[in-house]
Amino acid sequence: MIRYFLENKYHRIFKRYIDEKTNYCFSEVLGTGTYGIAYLIIEKRTGKKYVLKRLITKYRHSKKLRQRFQKEIQILKELNFPFVPSVIVENEVENIPFFVMDYMEGRTFEQTIFEEGHVYSLPESLHILKILLEMVVQIHHKGIVHRDLRIPNVLVHQGKLSIIDFGLATYLNPKQKIEEVKNPKKAANHCSDLYFLGHFLLFLLYSSYTPTESKERSWQEELQLPEEVKNYIERLLLIRPPFSSTEEALHCIPKV
Length: 256
Prior knowledge:
By secondary structure, the protein is α+β, with helices and mostly antiparallel strands. 39% of the residues lie in helices and 20% in strands. Strand 2 (36-43) and strand 3 form a beta hairpin.
């Protein structure tokens, strides 16, 4: 209860700060993550949309979480790609760090699947995966792993994709061997992003799936995919020997 009132207090402080001390005006809360809160803000002069992300109040004294927050800012600054938001400015308000970044237009794939009911065919799903892998190859070439490539963190707008929320991103560890990866979600190499993209692809494919029986089965049984596609996904998910690199995964996308 105390944390709730404290968070509300700092929400009001940030809203007042945005409206009175910056060139922006507060619009709405976009969402709350593991350690950050994102606001939609509007530039007063141009009407252009931006996003302000701040640290959750209860973590303002946590050295570990403050470092994690600064790491996200640094990583975004290093990724100079049109499909990744750029950092505009960073600062603090009453010991709570924040930064302003580009607002990326579009709908998340979570929204297109579960709110709009969009159905993705197998060829369309593989095409989307190809575009994402091309982006991830560029990110990996910068020495960075996203580690959270889920359907809420990829946007689509007029056929173009963008990647958001680098809160769990880290730097590639060239010394981490593939066979040493125990938890791909936390791996500091390409296996992490490929693992998440494997699940991302399954969400796309399940959008066209209609259950025929009440008993739940494995995705391999339910989706009835071509053998080449099934084997490919199993390599992404580390069920089979994984790809040696993101480039190999891109090169080996099944043609259907």
